[in-house]
Each structure stands twice: as C-alpha cells, then as structure tokens.
Amino acid sequence: MDPHHPKLEKIIRSKANGQLDDISLRIAINQHYESEDTELKNGDEVAFIPPGQGG
Q1: Helix, strand, or coil here: 28?
Q2: Which stretches of the chain are DSSP H helices?
Q3: Tens digits of per-residue pLDDT, 1-55?
Q4: Dihedral sign, Cα of residue 27, residue 34, residue 44, residue 14
Q5: How far apart are alpha carbons 3 and 32 in whole angstroms?
C-alpha cells in the first residue's frame, strides 16, 4: 500500500507551522500502510514515520 496519505498529511503540515516542510512523512493507520482513500474511524491508531537513514 501507499505510505502517503495526502489529505491527512495536509492537515498535519498545516498545524506544524512550517516545521515539517522539508520532511517526508510516511503514515500508517492501525499499523499498516493504507491507501489515500482510507477513511479514519474513531479509535484508529495513526503513526507518522519519519524518514530513516540507512548505511
């Protein structure tokens, strides 16, 4: 599934006052990457995964 959820990401970025502008976020809902069409339900767990660095 797509780890990006544009609608949710837009809301989070608008609340962050520019602090996330240069950061790529991946979003998981209930411990799974879901499509951008996934509707959030009351009680859903949302996790924001920052970019990792490998080496």
Answers
A1: strand
A2: 6-15
A3: 566 678 888 888 899 998 888 888 888 899 998 877 888 899 999 998 877 766 5
A4: positive
A5: 9
Alpha-carbon gap, residue 34 to 44, rounded angstroms: 12
Measured between alpha carbons, how far is 7 from 1 in angstroms, rounded to an integer? 16
Amino acid residing at 48: F
Pairing between strand 32-33 and 46-49?
unpaired
Domain ranges of the chain: 6-49
The amino acid occupying position 23 is I
Beta bridge partners of 47: 28
